Amino acid sequence: MNIGIFSDVYFPQKNGVSTAVKLYKQEMEKLGHNVYLFVPRYSHNYKRNEKNVFEFPAIKFLFEKEQRIAIPISGDIFKIKDLELDIIHSQDPFSMGILAEFLAKLLKIKHVGTHHTMYEYYRKYLPLIIRPTLKQTQKMIRNWCLKLDKVISPTENIKEVLVDYGVPEDHIVVIPTGIETEIFNKEITWNLREEYNIMPDERILLFVGRLGPEKNIDFLINVFSKVVNNEKNTKFVIIGDGVEREKLEEMVVNLSLQEKVIFTGGQPREKVLEAYKQADIFVFASYTETQGLVVLESMAAGTPVVALGKMGVYDLLNHENAGGIMIKELNEDDFVHEILRVLKDHELHKQLSENGIKFVKENYSIEVSVKRIIEVYKDVLNS
């Protein structure tokens, strides 16, 4: 099968969608399919060493420097017909998604899309003069979904949201975005403790993700300030970068935690995967996750999770043996209590670690997810 995947984000930009697209391509190619990516050019200085990736001119988004706005005009458009694509799979409704829709109609190709992101929560990044209302955003999502031949939702929770927006239930199929489980069996080569002077007897709390307001990292820092009052031999490692970094660093100084909180900035994916394995607890308080791949990755690494149970994260941690503890509401004391309980109870920590590894391997491997996506493609092509 010849598969065209269109996305407005891709590596070296680091986020869950970039990771998903890369894993889709790798696994689909393992199964013998030809996969072609259509993505924005990150920069003229960045050279890709990956076959079958078509780049389109792009400009930086003024209010989020890592984000690119693709200009879907390129000589490569004329090459697409020669690829004889069987199906198009878009990852968002924006520039590349619009191009995907245009090409699907022009070339009479079936078009599937995955709803990765709760765009309603990201309107704040747009200036007021062009910021859509909540209803306008929901209508945009609904209209995009209705133009697709099938919508893939990462979780049941997100499917329910789309149905509320007016997308027919039978137009949506739930397929979690899987992760590479075997990669966590590799030996660690990046010594996190050595690089950041973390002593052997110090416990590590970890956050991985973009430093944006919807991730609630300021909340996690406040939680950590209470944790460290009880467990002084604890450090909080924050991996990622974003618009909130300077504000968060100032907050850490104001709380006199600069010796306890470590900002590593963005890191290569290989280092991030190794960081999970070296942490004691992964903490997460985002309320916008369609699934929460970082939560899955942490559990796959055997690191227990304490996280806010909203949106996609709820669908993960709502399972009894998922390998994490779900906090129902954004309450500092509840987070502190559960973090301290996991830190102090070694049997509980061990059980959560074992549960997480088993749970992800059985339910959320990339192999399982991609096989289900391929079945969706076949169903759409035969409809």
From TrEMBL:
<keyword id="KW-0808">Transferase</keyword>
<dbReference type="Pfam" id="PF00534">
    <property type="entry name" value="Glycos_transf_1"/>
</dbReference>
<dbReference type="Pfam" id="PF13439">
    <property type="entry name" value="Glyco_transf_4"/>
</dbReference>
<protein>
    <submittedName>
        <fullName>Glycosyltransferase</fullName>
    </submittedName>
</protein>
<dbReference type="InterPro" id="IPR050194">
    <property type="entry name" value="Glycosyltransferase_grp1"/>
</dbReference>
<feature type="domain" description="Glycosyltransferase subfamily 4-like N-terminal">
    <location>
        <begin position="15"/>
        <end position="182"/>
    </location>
</feature>
<dbReference type="InterPro" id="IPR028098">
    <property type="entry name" value="Glyco_trans_4-like_N"/>
</dbReference>
<feature type="domain" description="Glycosyl transferase family 1">
    <location>
        <begin position="190"/>
        <end position="358"/>
    </location>
</feature>
<dbReference type="GO" id="GO:0016757">
    <property type="term" value="F:glycosyltransferase activity"/>
</dbReference>
<dbReference type="InterPro" id="IPR001296">
    <property type="entry name" value="Glyco_trans_1"/>
</dbReference>
